[in-house]
Automatic annotation (TrEMBL):
GO molecular function: nucleotide binding; transferase activity, transferring phosphorus-containing groups
InterPro entries: GDP_fucose_pyrophosphorylase
UniProt keyword list: Nucleotide-binding, Transferase
Domain GDP-fucose pyrophosphorylase: 7-191
GO biological process, any: GDP-L-fucose biosynthetic process
Protein name in UniProt: L-fucokinase domain-containing protein
Length: 243
């Protein structure tokens, strides 16, 4: 059964079209048991499946659970600063960070004294890039990049050369020689710590894109991400007291 969401008119239109098609057939459904696969869809749909008590996901897989915990493998100094309608995984955040509704954070670290406020609808991931020690697989020094988009951004949508890209209200000139999309747009700087990376990227959203450091696109960040370092940091979190 398709779960309709009235919040997004365009999404609702296509859900209605699909419903009208598939509602006329008589499909045979085979239960896959404990290893079932569920496609959450868009980021917005994922959040609704997690936190809407009437979602198809909760009705099918979690019928006897009232609420899904919104902090997975995290160390949060002040959980009351985190909206119950946002989802965090593998994060380490102190009491100076407040997060509104409908956000998703992964791998984020915040240990700074500067108060920081995360507005509703942000999708935020921090990645280690480069090598932790010289001579092991490359000569890039270990740094961190925080990637931030709004949950309703269409990252792969290509714009014309005459149309500027938009990132949290900032206008970005069209790219040369590449697909003109947010996916390929160099927006994100690297910093020496994950915490500083998070803070500085939020400041870029609030105060503008003026930055002399090299910039990476999300596509480049994913190519350069140090997966082994990510796994080590996750293991360290698991070894500590988990919220």
């Amino acid at each position: 059964m398709i779960h309709f969401m009235n919040k997004n008119v365009e999404l609702f239109k296509w859900q209605q079209i699909l419903w009208n098609i598939f509602n006329k057939i008589n499909p045979q459904i085979i239960s896959l048991g404990t290893n079932s696969f569920f496609h959450f869809g868009t980021v917005g749909e994922l959040l609704e499946h997690f936190f809407d008590e009437n979602s198809a996901f909760k009705k099918k897989f979690l019928p006897n659970i009232g609420e899904i915990g919104n902090l997975a493998n995290c160390l949060i100094e002040k959980p009351e600063n985190i909206s119950q309608k946002s989802f965090l995984e593998w994060c380490r955040i102190n009491s100076n960070c407040t997060i509104e509704d409908n956000c998703i954070l992964s791998g984020v670290v915040y240990e700074e004294k500067t108060p920081i406020y995360i507005k509703s609808g942000m999708c935020i991931c921090t990645f280690p890039i480069g090598e932790e020690e010289e001579g092991k697989g490359g000569n890039e020094e270990l740094n961190y990049v925080t990637v931030i988009f709004h949950i309703e951004d269409d990252l792969k949508r290509k714009t014309s050369k005459e149309e500027n890209l938009k990132w949290f209200g900032h206008s970005i000139k069209s790219l040369k020689g590449e697909d003109n999309s947010l996916w390929n747009c160099p927006l994100f700087s690297f910093y020496s710590t994950a915490s500083k990376s998070f803070l500085k990227t939020i400041e870029r959203i609030n105060f503008g894109l003026n930055d002399s450091t090299p910039l990476f696109s999300i596509a480049q960040v994913l190519e350069k991400a140090n997966v082994n370092k990510m796994l080590k940091e996750r293991k360290k979190l698991l070894e500590e007291k988990i919220v």
